[in-house]
């Protein structure tokens, strides 16, 4: 009796330990023939940790991607909330506990990618082995480098966007088109401009940082303290001069870009901004922004970057995650994602490499009156810089501009 | 024997959770979660003025909102204690905010109180302000007017429910006796009903205060960027890409804990005096 009870406890402990058969990691799966990967993935569930804050994106994932994945590949997609630091902390905790992963696929870029790579929390390399990777715009440094970091097969590009200010042609028929002109405009229109406290606002500050310091070239090649000191000595006086003319005299800033869109749509400020130059067309179609809203690229150059998919090192289904990433890279999925009425997220594919049918369909997307010409986008695109610049800029902005109040 | 001496168990169990929480906050705030606990690290984090400024502002907002809600709940419970349709409707209306999620309260506050909101547009339509933007800023301001009003409205539901049930259990003879002895209706309410309701409502007031002090949804959306409400600062630091920032968040949590525990201790002290 006693021995059978002890055996029961052992079984319980074994069950709690989450044992089970060992799963090959993403690098091991990636060297298998693609048919084997497809066969392994069929019938499985892929848990995808991603930002779930935009109804348009959620609809694309839930209503378009999920049923097609089930139909074509027998994969059940299970998107769950999680982004940036949340993902890093979750994976750090799982790694410390030696636990199996709670996610198989991650939507990441920039400092999140850097932190995950630094702590060896990503599986790979695998991304170069995807069949649809042959369509990638592999000559673009914006797509093939994530904040100056080589992808090295640990991330598969998913979307490409470029920062744009958003203005209303009826309210502001002659908007400023350079950082210097914007400064004059802000001084002449007190209370009508602000930026958010999130990633988009930080991107705007980086654009100003580039502009006031001779361009992006001065910041490439990794973070450097002396270059930061010189650059910040120009950026923060610029901000300190202008913030008294910001919305709420710079005493308050919208929490995120959604709040900034609301202020713009309600007429409380005259500019909004987005990391996606196409977002304005999508938001106009959804009735969130006024019909006369248009994107505006500053002549100083605006930051373009890409976002990616990664597979955690402790994923329990790397084969399924790779099949999902490959599907999301297909011309069909990329085209659907770029449609203004769906998400309006830019493609990472080189259109010239696609079959003629898909080249035509992508070409038809340029007919929207609010869409910016490809030539203008590429002429004014400037790349991201190492994540350490971003982190330092955000912490210094909080300290020096928002107030010395970050506990 | 065991059953007779088990009276000490209940307070120990009740105290265990907050004590464990405070212990964890001390350990993590001192760098324990980063593998190097030192009390000097915790003291250095607490020596900075920023968390204290955030705490002071959060206390101001929580005390103001709780005071407003308490006054509102007592007024509703006493003024509308009858059984007529109007009185029952008033009591029901006061409890409406109770089940409404904070995020919806924030959206409603923006819809009504912002400079492009219904109030601003209504006043502009009647010519009281020339354009909606001339309506005074109530949201995201250091004064916290809009945030305090929204928090008070959210608390009103909970406190009204408590206050109404307290009034319903009061002996009506108490007020009648006071009137017989010559007290006016106003004096009877002020000297008899209000103290009795306040005494019964006090635990609820402390609970509402502690809840508001630690809530972050409304302060994040309606509060100022500077001073940053302490609960919002905790959230921001806990989600920072820099893992060391989590220690800052735990040090700030310790301040929130301290403030809430002080309120509970004050309540116990006041109750003992009574």
Short description:
The complex is a heterodimer of chains A (407) and B (274). Chain A contains 17 helices and eleven strands. Chain A has 407 residues and is of the alpha/beta class.
List keywords for this structure.
heterodimer; A: 407 residues; alpha/beta; 6-stranded mixed sheet; 3-stranded antiparallel sheet; 11 strands; 45% helix; disordered N terminus; B: 274 residues; mainly alpha; MetI-like fold; 2 domains; 0% strand; flat
Number of helices of chain A: 17
Question: Which outline of chain B best applies?
Answer: flat
**First CA to last CA of chain A: what distance?**
58 Å
Biggest interface reads: A-B, 30 and 39 residues
Q: Report the end-to-end length of chain B measured between terminal Cα atoms.
A: 33 Å
Report the C-alpha radius of gyration of chain B, rounded: 23 Å
Mean pLDDT of chain A comes to 90
Count of individual beta strands of chain B: 0
Please, how many domains of chain B?
2
**Uncertain runs of chain B:** none
Mean pLDDT of chain B: 89
Residue fraction in strands of chain B = under 5%
* Whole-angstrom Rg of chain A: 23 Å
Helix content of chain A: 40-55%
Number of E-state strands of chain A: 11
Instruction: Report the biggest beta sheet of chain B as strand number plus sense, adding barrel if it closes.
Output: none
Relative strand content of chain A: 5-15%
Low-confidence stretches of chain A: 1-20
Kindly identify the CATH topology of the largest domain in chain B: MetI-like fold
Q: What is the overall number of helices of chain B?
A: 12
Kindly describe this structure.
The complex is a heterodimer of chains A (407) and B (274). In chain A, 45% of the residues lie in helices and 13% in strands. Chain A has 17 helices and eleven strands. In chain A, strands 1, 2, 3, 6, 10 and 11 form a six-stranded mixed sheet that branches. In chain A, helix 3 crosses helix 13 (318-328) and helix 9 (199-212) packs across helix 10 (225-242). Chain A is globular. The termini of chain A are far apart. Chain B has two domains: 1-47 and 239-274; 62-227, MetI-like (MetI-like fold, Orthogonal Bundle).
